[in-house]
Design a protein that fits this description.
Largest sheet of chain C: 6 strands, mixed
Order of helices and strands of chain C: EEEHEEHEHHHEHEHEEH
Number of domains of chain C: 1
Strand content of chain B: 5-15%
Structural class of chain B: alpha+beta
Helix content of chain C: 25-40%
Order of helices and strands of chain B: HHHEHEEEEHEEEHEHEHHHHHHHHHHHHH
Number of helices of chain C: 8
Low-confidence stretches of chain C: 1-5, 239-248
Strand order of the largest sheet of chain C: 6-7-8-3-9-10
CATH superfamily of chain C: P-loop containing nucleotide triphosphate hydrolases
Number of strands of chain B: 10
Largest interface: B-C, 32 and 37 residues
Distance between the termini of chain B: 35 Å
Oligomer: heterotrimer
CATH architecture of chain C: 3-Layer(aba) Sandwich
Shape of chain C: globular
Shape of chain B: elongated
Number of helices of chain B: 20
Strand content of chain C: 25-35%
Helix content of chain B: 55-70%
Low-confidence stretches of chain B: 178-193, 247-252, 357-367, 475-482
Mean pLDDT of chain B: 77
CATH topology of chain C: Rossmann fold
Radius of gyration of chain B: 32 Å
Chains: A mainly alpha (177), B alpha+beta (618), C alpha/beta (248)
Amino acid sequence: MQQEVVLAMLAKEPSQGYQLRARMNDALGPLGEALNAGQIYVTLGRLEKAGLVAVEETPEATGPADRDRKVYVLTAAGQQRVAEWLAEVSWPKPDLAEFHLKLIAAAAAGLADPIGIVDAQRRELLRRLRDAQRAEMAVPDGSDAALLLEGIVLRLQADLRWLEACEANWTIRRRKR
Amino acid sequence: MGKTLLAYRLAVRDLRHHAAQAVLLVVAIAAATATLTMALSMNGVTSQPYSATKAATDGPDVVAYLTSSSQAKTLVHAPGVASSSGPYPVVSGSIGFDGRSAAVFAEGRSQAPAAVDQPDVTAGGWVRPGGVVLERTFADGLGAGVGDVVTLNGRRFTVIGIAVTAAQPPYPNLCYFTASACSPSFNIDAGSPRDIGLIWLTGAGALGLTSKANPLTTYALNLKLSNPADADSFAAQHFVPPPQSGGTPGFMPPFTGPSFSTWDGIAAADALLVQDAQSVLEPGALLLALLAIASVTVLVGRRLSEYARRVGLLKAVGGTPGAVAAMFLAENLVLALLAAAVGLVAGSLAAPLLTNPGAALVGAPGAPSLTTVTALEVVGVALAVALAATLVPAIRAARTSTVAAINDVARPPRRRGALIRISAGLPVPVLFGLRLVARRPRRALLSAANIAITVTGIVAVLSFHATVDARLGAAATASIATGGLSNPVVTRDEQMLTVITIMIVVLAALNAIFTTWATVIDARRASALMRALGARASQVSSGLIVAQVLSALPGAIVGVPLGIGLVHAVIKHGSLPPASWLAGAVLGALLVMAALTVVPARLGARQPAAGVLQAEAA
Amino acid sequence: MSGAGTALLRARGLRKDYGKGEGLVRAVDEVDLDVATGETLAVMGPSGCGKSTLLHLLGGLDRPSAGELWLNGKRTDRLSERALAGLRRGEIGFVFQAFHLMDELTARENIELPALLAGRSPRQARHRALALLDQVGLADRAGHLPPALSGGQRQRVAIARALINDPLVVLADEPTGNLDSAATLEVLRLFEQLHASGLTLVIVTHDERVAATADRLVSMRDGALVDEMRLTGGGRRSFADLLRLEDS
């Protein structure tokens, strides 16, 4: 689980671990079940060590275990990291879940317009598609390179299709609000 | 059971969607069946009225024409003779009225009723001095009625009556001397004694018409036999043939003894009037049937792709090819049955209008015998027409593979490399028109066939008119002057011909409209594409007209010899219409087709090309 | 950068309505568009968004309900049907999704057709058609009928047909809509060549691969332009970078 995702989920408000987990489960739906229950605490620990997150101990906090009494909050460094991450357009290994959560977090925290994020990503992927396609046309037909490039092109195309769906979907959500 | 119900429902819905086409189909077939009904129901239509006239006038079984009144005694007392009247003097004369003149035979009669052949007076009264009674059809031809004053051989007489008789066939089929000389008026050789009217005068009046130059022609003796069936043998027995040589040319073969006409010969001559009509009606009905087939083919062919899709669906849900073809046929056959019913009713109502077999016969034919046989024949023809036109598409629709049918894979257009090459350098309308014809040769052929049939009909009518004109002209130069009389048979035939011509023209016009619409619709995609590639809308419309005219031209040209041939098959020694008429018929047909194409072409050109292309690709 | 002065194709307030009253459908809604000479513009959008209609308006295949259109400085929205036909013959070439070739004409004859319509002699038209067949790489298929050609080959023939009268701009409506990915590549290659030779191209497409070849991409939704993206610039990645795409 990418650390940045957890950071971003904290951007809305300070939360306890189980609250974060609940929000992620909501956003991921049935896929959330694949998440390891303890994974989020490991990540939170790492973030704490990196100084991106701070812990407030609240005596009133209740929960099944000790760790649940901890309330996590973003540090200034953490907030900056979130802002940077939101603006990033590098395309990780096909981890749709991450992008999906990025959009949700951005919308929930009011930090950025999800449609803007989608558009920026589309632009980047289109440019990559253009380059990959150009490269494919430049190499001989049927060569190994052509085959690999075709694969890259087709995946980019598929991703772009999903991004279009994201755009349509988030536009409708915005209209409803 | 479920399948039949489904088929029925689909058929009904389909008919409702295309109600206009269904109606047109019915109209086309009904026109043909109506004409056929008229033609067939003429059979035997006169036998009744002839019998009625014979009964009403005490008509003779045998009429003897004597060269001297002394020959009467032997005949009157011959075995088998039940009663007789006459001998009555017959004098030839010339009648004039209102600028018209005609040759007549005047029979001298007593004012007292005769025992045999007392003509039935339908207007005015019987003979009296100074008066003349005209035979009814002749009176119609002459245009004279009771009270009119006519001249007979220069002397004035008043028409005092109109009558009918069963002793002679009505004007102009007078056949004195021998009944075998009776034949349809337009099959005779020019110059033979025809178109002679029959009139009755008092005995003195008739004899008063004779002169040294115009002696008595013959004596007419009417005989009634105890057994009418013996008439022919009686006539044969007592007939004295004329000598081989000598004799004066003119009306009267140089008989030295009696010659006879028998009742069955007269009846047959009466029937010839009807045969005249039939010889006009039957070719007419044939032409209409052909036009109906052509119309039906065009109408059905248009819906072929829709049928193909429906066929595919039915086959996909389990219909067998046979069942599908049957269903397709059944729909059209039901319509044909309906059309047959309509045609039967219309034809039987119209037939009396045409059968005036000589107003000379007593009593109208009435609802001409619409026998069961006639009705069955007519229904059979209607079904055959529908069958002929729908069989091929039905079988083809059933044979296409289910997938192809559902996806409606259209028949690919034909390629004619030579035509494409030739058209390349020609102006755009010709380029387009030529290529349109080349890509759908079957439609072009159908178009040509339609025009061929239409022009055949029109040329047949023109030929008939030309023949009639020639006949009348020839008869006028003969020693018998028809002097401006209307020939009732020819008039009636002409009227019938006019009716048929109108029906042919209407049906042909409908046909032409279907064909032109179908051509334009079939060419929709090609037209839209041409416009998208930069052809002007006017060029595309003109191209469609060129295509129509190109396919119609061979048909129009072929129609000319066909039309002439049709008339000459029916009428011996028919005449040719003048070349200008024929050229006019051909040009007229082409102009009409061109004009009819303009409207759908213009309408099609208004639609934006892109829309049409997208629809056709969908 | 296209300034208003160098725009080959210009639209202002372009509108197309269908139907009346309650049933009014606005297929194109107040579209302003500039296409510079030599530019490749892609128009994307979901089906039913009006992009094909927009293209038909630009190409003179349909009349706008309102708005103004200029081609090479001349007003075209008010032209007569006759003049529009002339436009289609000369300045504008159109490529359709369904190819719309005449099945009974060979490849060469199909290509010749617009030239014949424009009044060129058969010999001139033939000469030019053969040259174009060469250019699109189908010289050996000149005498083949469309049913004997693959989808990609058919579309290349259609493109050659659109080029025969040396148009100022080629408008393509979903040119790869009926093609598989290999055939798509053939067509895209051809578009790249044409672009390189200076042809102005407007392509309506929902295929991202096609859109990626454009200089500029506009998106349509519900008849209106909602987005514009410039794809040129931004530097060319090295081949190596692309290969490492999956590792980042």
